[in-house]
């Protein structure tokens, strides 16, 4: 039996190396996005997005996914230490390529910064979705007018950029522009 293609480490917040999550919370603040439901791919051990949204008065609710045991454990400890954070911030362990559409609500904002970074032959072995299929699923689960964001400095952006270009031709989305290192699309109303 093939094992899950999981992330074998925890990722700390290193803004100089990977600023996407900080740029994301900057984006939410600068756009005045409040009371929104947010899907976030790749929590990091730091859980910056969920914690910031829970503590900055925005009333944004975040669902984060991580494929790292360390990051999931960090969330468990966080939820125990800070119940007020876990009220609006839920993170769970899983492979994003195994999401089940029946279990997903609609989101106002979807952040897919690590598109194309982690899909591998192991994923194919257990018939996981491809990056494009995962992107289509989360597009379907984005409310009309909602935001879908990517990370232009991703280590896989050469491949992600091609997937995004094809997706943008075939799905009801429009490019809004860039915000710092992020690429911003909106689902058409
Ligand atoms: C390089 S870390 C970046 C974390 C955070 N976004 C940051 O920039 O600080 C990559 C993240 O992707 C997550 N990840 C990797 N493969 C995944 C998968 N198949 N499904 C869900 N999350 C995955 C890891 O658990 C980790 O949180």
Concise account of the structure shown:
The protein is of the alpha/beta class and 189 residues long.
Word description of this protein:
This protein has helices at 20-30, 48-55, 69-81, 83-86, 121-125, 131-140, 157-170; strands at 37-41, 61-66, 89-93, 107-111, 142-151, 173-179, 182-187. With 189 residues, it is α/β, with parallel strands linked by helices. It has one domain: Rossmann fold, CATH 3.40.50.150. The mean pLDDT is 97. The site of S-adenosylmethionine has 22 residues, from helix 1 and strand 2. S-adenosylmethionine is lined by residues 5, 7, 11, 13, 18, 20-21, 41-44, 65-68, 71, 95-97, 113-114, 118.
Which SSEs are present, and which pair or pack?
Elements: H1 20-30, E1 37-41, H2 48-55, E2 61-66, H3 69-81, H4 83-86, E3 89-93, E4 107-111, H5 121-125, H6 131-140, E5 142-151, H7 157-170, E6 173-179, E7 182-187
Helix pairs in contact: 1-2, 6-7
S-adenosylmethionine (SAM) binds next to helix 1 and strand 2.
Q: What profile does the largest beta sheet have?
A: 7 strands, mixed
Classification by helices and strands? alpha/beta
CATH homologous superfamily caption: Vaccinia Virus protein VP39
**If you consult CATH, what is the topology?**
Rossmann fold
The unreliable regions are none
- Strand residue content: 15-25%
Report the strand count: 7
**Oligomeric status of the shown chains?**
single chain
Q: Any guess at the CATH architecture?
A: 3-Layer(aba) Sandwich
The averaged pLDDT comes out at: 97
User: Per the principal axes of the C-alpha atoms, what is the gross shape?
Assistant: globular
Task: Give the ligands present.
Answer: S-adenosylmethionine
Topology pattern, helix = H, strand = E: HEHEHHEEHHEHEE
């Amino acid at each position: 039996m093939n094992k899950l293609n999981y992330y074998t480490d925890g990722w700390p917040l290193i803004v100089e190396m990977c600023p996407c999550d900080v740029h994301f919370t900057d984006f939410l603040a600068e756009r005045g996005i409040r009371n929104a439901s947010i899907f976030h791919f790749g929590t990091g051990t730091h859980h910056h997005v969920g914690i910031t949204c829970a503590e900055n008065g925005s009333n944004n609710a975040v669902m984060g996914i991580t494929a790292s045991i360390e990051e999931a454990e960090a969330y468990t400890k966080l939820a125990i230490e800070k119940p007020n954070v876990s009220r609006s911030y839920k993170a769970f362990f899983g492979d994003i390529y195994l999401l089940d559409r029946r279990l997903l609500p609609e989101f106002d904002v979807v952040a897919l910064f690590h598109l194309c970074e982690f899909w591998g032959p192991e994923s194919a072995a257990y018939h996981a979705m491809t990056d494009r299929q995962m992107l289509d699923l989360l597009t379907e689960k984005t409310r009309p007018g909602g935001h879908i964001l990517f990370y232009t400095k991703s280590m896989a952006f050469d491949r992600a950029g091609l997937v995004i270009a094809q997706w943008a031709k075939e799905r009801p989305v429009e490019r809004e522009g860039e915000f710092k290192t992020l690429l911003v699309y909106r689902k058409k109303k």
